[in-house]
Structure formats: C-alpha cells, structure tokens
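Running co-folding for 2-acetamido-2-deoxy-beta-D-glucopyranose.
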Amino acid sequence: MVSYRLYCTLWILLCFGQYFGQDLQFPEPANGAVGESVVLAPVNPPSTSILVTQWTLIDSTLIIRVVSGVTTVNSSYEGRVRFDINTLALELQNLTLGDSGIYRLSVTTSAGEIRSGETSLQVFGQYFGQDLQFPEPANGAVGESVVLAPDNPPSTSFLVTQWTFNSIFIIIVASGVTTVNPAYEDRVSFDINTLALELQNLTLGDSGIFRLSVTTSAGEILTGETSLQVFEKNI
Ligand SMILES: *[C@@H]1O[C@H](CO)[C@@H](O)[C@H](O)[C@H]1NC(C)=O
Ligand SMILES: *[C@@H]1O[C@H](CO)[C@@H](O)[C@H](O)[C@H]1NC(C)=O
Ligand SMILES: *[C@@H]1O[C@H](CO)[C@@H](O)[C@H](O)[C@H]1NC(C)=O
C-alpha cells in the first residue's frame, strides 16, 4: 500500500505539474546582485514528514528534487545550490542575471497532501558607469510606500533635478521651483538634500525603472537608475 501511495503521489506530482492553492508562503520577493547568494525560504514549511520536495524556476526548469531522501540536482545548478531539508530553504550562489524569475516550491507530504508556493527573485548587475548609485532594487507591497534614494547625492549645488518613471516625468525641480506630474500629485514626496523620492499608495503599475538625473551648477549631468517591484500583499 505504501508503495502504491508513493507511486500515486509521484505520478500526480510529475505528470500534472499544477498544484492547488498557495499553501507555502514567502516573506517577500528576493533581490541579489550578480555573483552573490540568496536564500529562498518559506515561512511555513510543513511540520509533517515529506515525501517529495521540488524547487523549479518558472514552473518548468527543475532545480532540485528530493524524493524519499534522495536528492537530484539539475546539472546546470550543480555546485551552486544548497537545500535545507528542514526549512526547505533553497540557497542559490553565484547569481547571474538569468536567475531572475518566479521560483516555485512544491512538497508532497507523507499524507499525500500537495502544498506549493511561489516567490520571485530579481538579480541586478553592478551599476558600473552610472554616476548616481542606488543600494539595490526596491520592493514594496500594494498600498504601501517606498523611498528611492541614491547612495551618493552630489555635494555640489544643483540646477535641475528630475525623477522619471519609464521615461515619464514624475517630478522636476529647476532653480528651486518644483513641478509634479498631476498623475503623481499627493502621492510623492521629494527631499532636495538626499534626492530621495518617496512614492506612496503603491500600485502594481508602479513596478519598473526609475531614473534620477541631476544637473549640477557646474553644468555636469549625473544620472542613475533603480528599479521597483511592487507585489500584492498576502500572495
Ligand atoms: C536544467 O536547467 C536548465 C537551465 O539551466 C534547463 O534548460 C533544463 O531544462 C533543466 N533540466 C530540467 C530537467 O528541468
Ligand atoms: C562562482 O563564480 C566564480 C567566478 O566566475 C567561479 O570561479 C566559481 O567556480 C563559481 N562557483 C560556483 C560554485 O559556481
Ligand atoms: C491612498 O489610497 C487610499 C485608498 O484607495 C485613498 O483613500 C487615499 O486617498 C490614497 N491617498 C493618496 C495620497 O493617494
């Protein structure tokens, strides 16, 4: 009977590839720089014993599968993944830009229950050659606020400062006069000293590339980009 049940759950897991619900939850989308490591871990790993655990990238690329204690790692991930059977955490090392995407964890418990959950990873390059640097891509939940601030605001005085989103202007400060795009009125604030832009009441449509450009009084133009990923609460 045991082997029959094992066979059935394996068959369901391997053949259907689609699971019910989002039972495994993740704290928030993950970020990591090229060459760094990141750990993807559910907040609620099942407390019952587990027959099959599988991590995939965007539903199809198998990364690691553990069946009754036997681990199979996709050879393209060999040497740069670690898996913790107790927490179900997947550690990805030596990140590349191609590691960005949706990661799915699915588990079959020994009671035959299938649980799954998804999280996303955004891998960013080192922003060489940009004058204004940002610590890392920002994340925020729908309805929340986020602050985008460069690490190195220029210490000289500025003539013009401008924030744009996907090439649409959000705010321009020219010689002390501030103009805000009406579409952003009441939900942005800007700090002229740090050049930080705060965006409030985030919507999914706020995900994208934000660009800051500054013209110093010496006529130099400095620019930098960062990205924002907005996610739904309680995925
Ligand atoms: C292993 O990973 C590569 C990409 O890194 C992917 O193309 C391939 O389909 C994966 N193998 C399996 C069995 O999913
Ligand atoms: C990580 O990348 C470095 C540099 O490309 C390489 O020397 C090293 O072998 C890689 N390690 C793994 C585990 O892939
Ligand atoms: C933020 O969203 C709430 C709910 O939709 C709304 O009542 C409020 O006016 C919004 N605030 C701003 C500043 O847009």
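Result summary
Residues 61-62, 74, 76 surround 2-acetamido-2-deoxy-beta-D-glucopyranose (ligand 1) (CB under 6 Å).
The chain has two domains: 2-124, 138-231.
Job closed.
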